[in-house]
Amino acid sequence: MSEQRGMDAFSHLGSEVRAALSERGFSTPTEPQRRAIPALADGRNGLVLAPTGTGKTETAMLPVLDSIAREGAPEGFAALYITPLRALNRDMRERLDWWGETLDIDVDVRHGDTTDYQRRQQATDPPDVLVTTPETLQAMLTGERLRDGLADVEHVVVDEVHELASAKRGAQLSVGLERLVELAGDVQRIGLSATVGDPGEVAAFLTGGRGCEIIDVDVTSNVEFSVREPEVTRRDERVSNELMTSPEMASHVRAIREIVDERDSVLIFVNTRQTAEALGSRFKELDANIGVHHGSLSKDARIEVEDQFKAGELDGLLCTSSMELGIDVGRIDHVVQYSSPREVARLLQRVGRAGHRRDEVSYGTVITGNPDDTLEALAIARRASEGDVEPTQIHHGSLDTVANQIVGLVMDFGETSARHAYQTVTRAYPFQDLDEATFREVAMELHSNRVVYVDEDDDTISKSGGTWQYYYANLSMIPDEETYGVYDMAGGHQVGTLDEKFVVNFAEPGATFVQGGEMWRITNIDEEEEEVNVSPIEDPAGEVPSWTGQEIPVPYDVAQEVGEMRDVAADQFAASAPEQGETEDATGDALRAGVAREFTTRYPTDEYTAGQALEQIDRHVAMDAPVPSDDRVVVEQAGGTIVVNAALGHEANETLGRLLSSLLGQRTGSSVGLDVGPYRIELEVPTRVSADDVAALLRETDPEHVEPLLELSLKQSETLKFTLAQVAAKFGALKRYRSSNSNSSGDGWQGRSGVGLSRLLGALEDTPVYDEAIREVFHTDLDVERASDVLARIQAGDVDVDIVGERTAIGSGGRSSGSELLTPENADASVVQAIRDRIQDDRVKLFCVHCQDWAHETKVRRVADQPECPHCGSTRIAALSPWADDAVTAVRADDKDDEQEDRTERVFRNASIVQSHGKKAVIALSARGVGPRNAARVINRHRENEADFYRDILEREREYARTKAFW
């Protein structure tokens, strides 16, 4: 019967294509092909949702190639294949080339690396099928000859449409397709996508709300998941010393290696490049036959490991999301996900890479390492098995995209009416709710920036002197961030790349890091050439790069299920508490085993893994503390640290965290430190702030005021300033320039009148630029709607808020964010010595706050045990960053503004610590991200033990690296 259905699907194609199918060995179509080809061959729009490796490319292209073969190729382009990848992966290119040669259809590729000669050839003699990127389409739409060729387009295939739908480059493409309609009329649109939670929304994005056949291939019936926390063995304890890591981490490495050894080809997905590098270096130490693949490696390095894996020369491949977008590496028989994948869609997409033979199950193992990680992975695996996938976060109404596309329309026509431009933009799905008044404000902002000329009298928008330059400098909506090439000075080849933020904040001559699974020491940094020159080293105690890139946010629904799991387990532990006279030991192990066994009936895991995750809940219940759950928030306090235990996911907790820190900061006049995860909000507060104060804010803050209060607090944040600069560049209001002595990302921007980021907010606050920056921060980082709803439910009594006067088992058990990969939990002597040497060689500016005349820069190691001013003899000496001229200026100023007052207060606190603790304070204050409050804690905690003193500093630096975006 299935063969007959296959023949029915292929019968919709012409004889030439059917003959080619036989030659290619396609006897029976895959399920996506069987279900989609009839509708697509009929010329209907279609969205095909299926895992990688199920023949999606042929599903879309066979009907398109058949149409061209039957009807004959036009003079221009017949079809466009748009992919978010800069270059189509080689396997897909070879397959399309084969089909083109067999059917006598010309297939070519055009992207940023296409030569000028090839571009001219494509303009004068267009290929029948052109494979291109969203950004290159933007350039093509403005070329006179290319526009003639585009007028013949009848089919557009958009690959990886789920990736584009949730990004601004996708919003830009959606308008680009409407600009194509202006040339070619309505064309057939075919989208290829991984599984999404809202196929109708993605289909509307693809077609602009036009009719669309949705072919959603069920992946959940053919996937099996297992969540596992490896048990530590004695061998792991021995190996941990060799690997310079904890026994737990050694057990993870062993467990992954066992899976790789038992199978032929295994993909090992990790969530960050940092983790890929750290794990890769561990496998290299053990001579495991496992490669490393991520976006910061050079193209040649990536291609080499792809080919080795496909040829069976590698048993496993460690990779990040770089392997999600359809890169062909041959057959995969198992997928390992290292730590929680954070999202259902991500787990399905990654594990979906395994198998794909007919009726074959795709197997995936999630390796976890702590209770949060395990419970979260269990929730995600269960939801994935039931197809409960997150919705796509489309960028509705992004105004910098509107600005960009207004300029595009002017480039298309030379001059256009504002009304026509508005109608074209709002045909695209992300902009269908854009009102005309806002559109005109955007056009006038472009006019004021001299990007276009707006004539309000005759309602036209036309080119100005800056139009051409702006458009070609902004073909992409991807934020403009520099990358530095990393070059091996000994080998003379490129190792990979580093993000600009890492280079500015962390990289310096002598610093060490891991890349390509090997250790490197920075020799020098060439700012002009944007190169980092390195040499290989054997020392395993180096620092892994903290690449920029946000942590994958855990969705609200997943976090809520974790809260629900806690609640269920807590009830079982509480109901089976020891009888009077009976010891906890007599019942505890058996009780945990029973609860764990019950969990394995509902979740894909084993008793040991479930028991390890539940042990934390058991200890929490034993403290007689309320358990944070899906309908209970628990606020706990120990000293100056307050933890709000709330299972609300990253974005809702980020929203509440920023709200609480802002309100507490306003009330106390002091800064409030903030760290946020999906299950906790951690606040570093002045001692006069209590858990009761935080609980009161949750119970009393008007949910309707969340958004305006957050907007006020964002004005002081680096997040908004940096976003504002990026958005302003897309409006033509700012130009990027390189600064050789830049010490922060904010120094890399300059406005029309030379204003820096600190003054940018005031200059742009009442413009669409500011509105879009706020919208983007809210869209990307926050969830105002959910946070407001939580406050409303607290105030309605549907969510409890309980207070605990101590740190609880759950409250203390935050996610480690992979920090255990960097060094052992108790760093050994070589690591302590490395951090000591680095800080001692750092430079520090000593400043006397008593006479305010003396400021002296020197190395930390040259500072006296009790520094004093040579002018006035005072010991009130602040230890500042070498470039802290603004802080010195603030102290010396007679008439201070609010910002200078804050800086002055911090400098005096700094000097007070140095006066009390001497050189030890100078050392602590010279560490990255350690301020006076943390410096005092580190010193008081480790007065006698120097090794622990430096270990604590290292942990503070790690914490700062993870959380600096929130400060």
Automatic annotation (TrEMBL):
<keyword id="KW-0238">DNA-binding</keyword>
<dbReference type="InterPro" id="IPR013701">
    <property type="entry name" value="Lhr-like_DEAD/DEAH_assoc"/>
</dbReference>
<dbReference type="GO" id="GO:0016887">
    <property type="term" value="F:ATP hydrolysis activity"/>
</dbReference>
<dbReference type="GO" id="GO:0006281">
    <property type="term" value="P:DNA repair"/>
</dbReference>
<dbReference type="GO" id="GO:0004386">
    <property type="term" value="F:helicase activity"/>
</dbReference>
<feature type="domain" description="Helicase ATP-binding">
    <location>
        <begin position="37"/>
        <end position="214"/>
    </location>
</feature>
<keyword id="KW-0234">DNA repair</keyword>
<keyword id="KW-0547">Nucleotide-binding</keyword>
<dbReference type="InterPro" id="IPR014001">
    <property type="entry name" value="Helicase_ATP-bd"/>
</dbReference>
<dbReference type="InterPro" id="IPR052511">
    <property type="entry name" value="ATP-dep_Helicase"/>
</dbReference>
<dbReference type="Pfam" id="PF00270">
    <property type="entry name" value="DEAD"/>
</dbReference>
<comment type="similarity">
    <text>Belongs to the Lhr helicase family. Lhr-Core subfamily.</text>
</comment>
<keyword id="KW-0067">ATP-binding</keyword>
<dbReference type="InterPro" id="IPR001650">
    <property type="entry name" value="Helicase_C-like"/>
</dbReference>
<feature type="domain" description="Helicase C-terminal">
    <location>
        <begin position="252"/>
        <end position="400"/>
    </location>
</feature>
<keyword id="KW-0378">Hydrolase</keyword>
<dbReference type="Pfam" id="PF19306">
    <property type="entry name" value="WHD_Lhr"/>
</dbReference>
<dbReference type="InterPro" id="IPR011545">
    <property type="entry name" value="DEAD/DEAH_box_helicase_dom"/>
</dbReference>
<dbReference type="InterPro" id="IPR027417">
    <property type="entry name" value="P-loop_NTPase"/>
</dbReference>
<dbReference type="InterPro" id="IPR017170">
    <property type="entry name" value="Lhr-like"/>
</dbReference>
<dbReference type="GO" id="GO:0003677">
    <property type="term" value="F:DNA binding"/>
</dbReference>
<dbReference type="Pfam" id="PF08494">
    <property type="entry name" value="DEAD_assoc"/>
</dbReference>
<keyword id="KW-0413">Isomerase</keyword>
<dbReference type="GO" id="GO:0005524">
    <property type="term" value="F:ATP binding"/>
</dbReference>
<dbReference type="Pfam" id="PF00271">
    <property type="entry name" value="Helicase_C"/>
</dbReference>
<dbReference type="GO" id="GO:0140097">
    <property type="term" value="F:catalytic activity, acting on DNA"/>
</dbReference>
<dbReference type="InterPro" id="IPR045628">
    <property type="entry name" value="Lhr_WH_dom"/>
</dbReference>
<keyword id="KW-0347">Helicase</keyword>
<keyword id="KW-0227">DNA damage</keyword>
<feature type="region of interest" description="Disordered">
    <location>
        <begin position="530"/>
        <end position="549"/>
    </location>
</feature>
<protein>
    <submittedName>
        <fullName>DEAD/DEAH box helicase</fullName>
    </submittedName>
</protein>
